Amino acid sequence: MAENSELKTVSSEREERLRKLDELKALGINPYPAITKRDHLISVILSGFEKLAAEQKIFILAGRLRAKREHGNLAFANLEDASGNIQLAFSKKDLGVESYKNFLKLIDVSDFIEVSGYAFLTHKGEKSVMVSDWKLLTKALRPIPDAWYGLKDEDELFRKRYLDIILNPETRDMILKRAKFWQATRNFLLERGFIEVETPVLETMAGGADAKPFATHHNALDIDVYLRISMGELWQKKLMVAGLEKTFEIGRQFRNEGMDAEHLQDYTQMEFYWGYADYKMGMALTEEMYKYIALETFNTLKFKIKNFEVDLGGEWKIYDYRETVKKMTGIDVLEANESEIIAKLNELKVAYDPKGFNITRAIDNLWKYCRKQIAGPGFLVGTPITVSPLAKRDENNGSIAQRFQIIIAGSEIGNGYSELNNPLDQDERFKEQQKLKEAGDEEAQEHDHDFVEALEYGMPPTCGFGFSERLFCFLMDKTARECQIFPLMRPKKED
Fold first, then answer.
1. Residues 241, 218: contact at Cβ < 8 Å?
2. Is 396 helix (H, G, I), strand (E, B) or coil?
3. What is the pLDDT of residues 371-407, one digit of tens each?
4. What pLDDT sits at residue 3?
5. What's the rounded Cα separation, in Å, for the pair 490 and 103?
6. H-run or E-run covering 52
7. Selection from 279, 268, 228 nearest residue 448 by Cα
8. pTM for the whole structure
9. Smallest Cα–Cα separation from 421: which of 276, 244, 280, 285?
């Protein structure tokens, strides 16, 4: 009943604004002009207010009206732009009767206007602008919901994110921080000699990661293609073959898998590839990078994430995969068979998808159980080669990979390796992956013959590393959906 009442209120408000729109047109006022003569941001006026007030110099502002109230021959309003909010004062005497009347009668909260005026302090000491002229820039046909009583449903906030940004300063702050986060990532790599590249989003074979891809059809070429599941891993390695020694890409990738607090189907990822470097050099560089990004974005290295206190400025510990799992579960992942691991997963009440299940998935699920108990920050090393099909084997123990993963607050927040550059070894591992895929493992990789051929031309020792926007979400201590500007939503059913 309350919802229907609210809909009627919005509907009647819209009808009233449409009536005002017609009246504005009848007066010869364009309700949607293409240009404004704005010459100052509100933040600039506020920061230099005393000087401007003394000079009584006329300036021009533009923004959205957030409040409006009348007091006899004076009216007050609040104007907001992206930089701040300031009070406006309208005097019937200064504006003239007609202009003053039209402002009160035809202009609503949520409309965008341009005002000319000068700075002054009210008798209560509030920084304000005395308006000498105004112009309508955009007539809003719907009112912004009340900040306290409107749009409390989370799905509705995500669906109408533009209103969430208007109503909630913390959402706007998150978006600004997100931009800083990715710019800091880019700056860090560029300052160290990496070049930014772009690799295909559409691929004939989804490679570079263990994940289920989105499939579609390319009409012009009449071929089936996939949306990429990695940030051009195999393409960037081809650039290593080509002699480009330091590359990175920041872009969107897609995985047709589950959705939860840490996972979405399309998200931003960064991957770099560094020729003549190994995973140990990568560990040193990424620790430095994480600290740099945190300071640039949040101005701190200390974070509360889920139930963990994480200090990126403290010691970064080393966690050995085999030792950690054995200590927490009693299972030796390099010796145990699939049945033994499944029995342990059942004992620990770890849920897993039985479809296409195999020893690789069994080990991975057992590790994820252990990982959730580790605060970090630190590096996971000694990963079994069976779950690392693109990593170089350890020179002293061929059953583990030269791989590292960054662990923060119970999750993997970054993944890197000494990249496999032996084409014969890569060919054999692709064959094993292909068998797993044919047996029903949708996340296993296909045999990429073109990539193996590229490796046969020679790729230097290379370290590859990547992290997704999950790192940003964790540092914000928010869910993945909260940290996307426009998360994907089911279409709303029309009544």
1. no
2. coil
3. 999 999 999 999 988 888 778 999 999 999 999 999 9
4. 47
5. 40
6. helix 49-55
7. 228
8. 0.89
9. 276
Which residues lie closer than 8 Å to 228 by C-beta, 6 or more apart? Answer: 199, 200, 201, 202, 203, 206, 208, 213, 253, 254
Closest listed residue to residue 378, CA positions, set 445, 440, 317, 326: 317
Q: Rounded to whole angstroms, how far apart are CA atoms 182 and 351?
A: 34
Which two three-digit tokens encode residue 79? 């104007």
Q: How far is C-alpha 9 from the geometric centre of its chain's CA atoms?
A: 35
Residue 391 tokens, joined: 């990593």
pLDDT digit string, tens, across residues 33-84: 999 999 999 999 999 999 999 999 999 999 999 999 998 889 999 999 999 9
User: Which residues contact residue 165 at a Cβ distance below 8 angstroms, ignoring those fewer than 6 apart?
Assistant: 171, 172, 175
Work out whether the CA dihedral 275, 472, 288, 311 comes out positive or negative. negative
Give the model confidence (pLDDT) of 95-112 as tens digits.
999 999 999 999 999 999
Domains of the chain (ranges, CATH numbers): 2-144 (2.40.50.140), 164-316+376-483 (3.30.930.10)
89 contacts: CB under 8 Å, gap ≥ 6: 74, 75, 76, 120, 122, 128, 129, 130, 131
**CA-CA distance, 376 to 406, in Å (whole number)?**
8
Provide the token pair at 89.
């004062």
**270 vs 188: CA distance, rounded Å:** 12
For 413, phi then psi, to 5°, come to: -120, 50
Cβ–Cβ < 8 Å for 272, 465:
yes
Whether 473 contacts 249, CB under 8 Å: no
Integer Cα distance of 468 and 225 in angstroms: 23
